[in-house]
Design a protein that fits this description.
Number of strands: 7
Strand content: 5-15%
Order of helices and strands: EHEHEHEHEHEHHHE
Radius of gyration: 17 Å
Largest sheet: 7 strands, parallel
CATH architecture: 3-Layer(aba) Sandwich
Helix content: 40-55%
Shape: globular
Length: about 260
């Protein structure tokens, strides 16, 4: 196998949570471009249909999808059945579903705090638990969790987000150890400020925008399509000796 063949995802099947928009959609399309059969999962059926159509148009490959909530185990289990019936196997899981609520802690409601942790951390844990038996049985798998630069550094008014993303990183490391005997690699991508819908509102605030840019050595925000190639790298055999890693993609923010 030559070096370029190691990046091929032909005959691999990938489930992408949060795959209808933002970084999840970009990574899903990148995997399809590399040859994978992609299955999308998120809450909005209309957005899923549009995302699937976009990927199919760009790659010529069929894309499946199931609507559901990552915080509900039964929704994730329900998504696996049509995926396995259609594709026959599952090799790759990308946990990209996430939300962010910003507030000083004294204004943060318990409900909002729980919601962020439920989607970002519990949702990732539930998805891993759901696909685990399938990956263990075939003794092969690639799991990519979406952490954040806030998995390792912090910023005011983000107690819930930082706590949840720190948890995702530790979940990644723990599962990497737990699943290593089964040939399952578990890694964490830690994006910095990307131009996605989740960040659109804060980037419109001139002061906040300037605050972010002043902390990015490359002097700009990330473009969503810049994350796709890293997902392809982690999803295949090109880095089969990497597991438990946290990979920052933040324009140099956490190198300061």
């Amino acid at each position: 196998m030559n070096v370029l063949e190691r990046f091929s995802l032909e005959n691999r099947v990938a489930l992408v949570t949060g795959g209808s928009r933002g970084l999840g959609l970009e990574m899903a399309q990148a995997l399809a471009e590399a040859g994978a059969r992609v299955w999308l999962f998120s809450r909005n059926s209309q957005a899923l249909s549009a995302a699937a159509a976009r990927i199919e148009s760009a790659t010529g490959r069929p894309v499946g999808f199931t609507a559901g909530d990552v915080t509900r185990a039964k929704d994730l289990e329900a998504a696996l059945q049509p995926l396995l019936n259609t594709c026959g196997r599952l090799d790759i899981l990308i946990n990209s579903a996430g939300i962010n609520i910003r507030n000083p802690i004294e204004k943060f409601t318990e409900e909002d705090f729980r919601r962020v942790l439920d989607v970002n951390l519990l949702g990732t844990w539930l998805a891993c638990r759901s696909v685990g038996p399938h990956l263990i049985r075939q003794r092969y798998g690639r799991v990519i969790n979406l952490g954040s630069m806030f998995s390792t550094v912090a910023m005011p008014e983000r107690t819930a987000y930082c706590a949840s993303k720190g948890g995702v990183l530790q979940l990644t490391r723990t599962l990497a150890l737990e699943w290593a005997p089964y040939g399952i690699n578990v890694n964490c991508i830690c994006p910095g400020p990307f131009e996605t819908e989740i960040n659109e509102a804060i980037f419109k605030e001139a002061g906040v925008r300037r605050q972010f840019l002043d902390n990015i050595p490359l002097g700009r925000f990330g473009k969503p399509e810049e994350l796709g190639p890293l997902a392809v790298l982690l999803a295949g055999d090109a880095c089969s000796f990497m597991t438990g890693a946290a990979l920052p993609v933040d324009g140099g923010w956490t190198s300061r």
